[in-house]
């Protein structure tokens, strides 16, 4: 078994995380991740209202007695989001771990800290990680350029970004972006991380509440089957390559275009309905990381976690034990 600062400080069996995924991070998946000994995050804003988040947390608790968290993504929106109400639902339900993402989480930290909630903040750069540490978060989830979603504008891959952050930050680090295998976990630990975060790998599991076409497409896709969109608007996002993402890029590449010209194509509601729910793979934009090249079959969450830990233990046992320092490196028991 692999123990790290992350597993010890967050009381999680395995150093594996399923971060918040809008439209995907719901009770069945997150409970399955928890039951496999990893840490999963419900996506708060997948639920249209705070009351519905309350219901989803209760559903998850009915499916697992192991720890799980809630992701609270803070982004500018057309319609105001009652973040304070979502936060209070999280606290009232006794959730002990929260993942924040998007904007600066400082407005929410005092309430979370007063309630004894540990906060993991997602960052895409060394400077952002240092800012989060100064704010008082408990861990940093570092997104390399390979990740699905928003990797920032610096284009630094995990192989460089993870050790760069580890050299400057004193908190537990969760490596995100490009991870789907035991060799990836072993590499992340060697680079100075304390756990890995996977999104795309957990979408291609039996418990993920998305259409089977999505899971099969991830298995079929290669590392070249993603697209960077919104770069023109300095809000770069990595999504799966399909007819819609190609059309978005074609429109972006024109000299005189604004976000309004792609808004309908890029609609999250459209992607969730057409792709995730109905399996019409070319009728909406959907998120996928380059790690899809490493996903070779649809498995249960338990099978995914077990295979990753077994492979990582074998690799680390072969190559690193004589170099490990018992005080601050992964240990086996």
List keywords for this structure.
alpha/beta; TIM Barrel; 2 domains; 8-stranded parallel barrel; two-stranded antiparallel ribbon; 13 helices
What is the topology?
Blueprint lengths: L1 E2 L1 H6 L5 E3 L8 H9 L3 E5 L6 H14 L5 E6 L8 H10 L4 E6 L6 H6 L3 E6 L2 H10 L3 E5 L14 H9 L6 E4 L5 H9 L4 E3 L2 H4 L8 H9 L5 E4 L7 E4 L2 H10 L15 H10 L23 H19 L11 E2 L1
Parallel strand pairs: 2-3, 2-9, 3-4, 4-5, 5-6, 6-7, 7-8, 8-9
Antiparallel strand pairs: 1-12, 10-11
Helix pairs in contact: 2-3, 3-4, 8-13
Number of domains: 2
User: What distance lies between the first and last C-alpha atoms, to the nearest angstrom?
Assistant: 6 Å
**Overall spatial form:** globular
Give the helix level as a range of percent.
Answer: 25-40%
Q: Which CATH class of the largest domain applies here? A: Alpha Beta
Q: Determine Rg (CA atoms, Å).
A: 19 Å
Look at the helices and sheets and give the structural class: alpha/beta
């Amino acid at each position: 078994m692999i123990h790290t600062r992350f597993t010890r400080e967050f009381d999680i069996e395995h150093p594996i995380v399923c971060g918040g995924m809008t439209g995907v991070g719901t009770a069945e998946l997150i409970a399955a991740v928890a039951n496999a000994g990893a840490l999963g995050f419900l996506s708060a804003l997948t639920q249209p209202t705070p009351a519905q988040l309350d219901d989803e947390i209760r559903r998850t608790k009915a499916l697992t007695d192991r720890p799980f968290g809630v992701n609270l993504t803070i982004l500018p929106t057309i319609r105001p989001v009652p973040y304070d109400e979502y936060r209070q639902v999280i606290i009232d339900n006794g959730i002990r771990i929260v993942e924040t993402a998007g904007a600066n989480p400082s407005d929410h930290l005092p309430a979370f800290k007063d309630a004894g909630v540990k906060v993991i903040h997602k960052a895409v750069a060394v400077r952002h990680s240092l800012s989060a540490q100064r704010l008082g978060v408990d861990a940093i989830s570092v997104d390399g350029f390979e990740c699905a979603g928003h990797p920032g504008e610096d284009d630094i891959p995990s192989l460089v970004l993870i050790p760069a952050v580890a050299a400057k930050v004193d908190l537990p680090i969760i490596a995100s972006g490009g991870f789907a295998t035991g060799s990836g976990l072993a590499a992340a630990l060697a680079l100075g991380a304390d756990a890995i975060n996977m999104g795309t790998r957990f979408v291609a599991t039996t418990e993920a509440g998305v259409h089977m076409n999505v899971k099969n497409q991830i298995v079929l896709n290669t590392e070249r089957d993603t697209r960077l969109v919104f770069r023109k608007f300095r809000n770069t996002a990595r999504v799966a390559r399909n007819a819609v993402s190609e059309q978005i890029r074609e429109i972006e590449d024109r000299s005189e275009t604004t976000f309004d010209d792609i808004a309908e194509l890029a609609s999250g509601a459209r992607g969730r309905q057409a792709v995730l729910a109905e399996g019409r793979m070319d009728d909406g934009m959907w998120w996928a990381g380059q790690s899809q090249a490493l996903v070779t079959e649809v498995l249960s969450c338990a099978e995914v976690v077990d295979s990753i830990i077994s492979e990582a233990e074998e690799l680390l046992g072969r190559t690193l034990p004589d170099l490990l320092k018992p005080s601050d490196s992964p240990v086996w028991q």
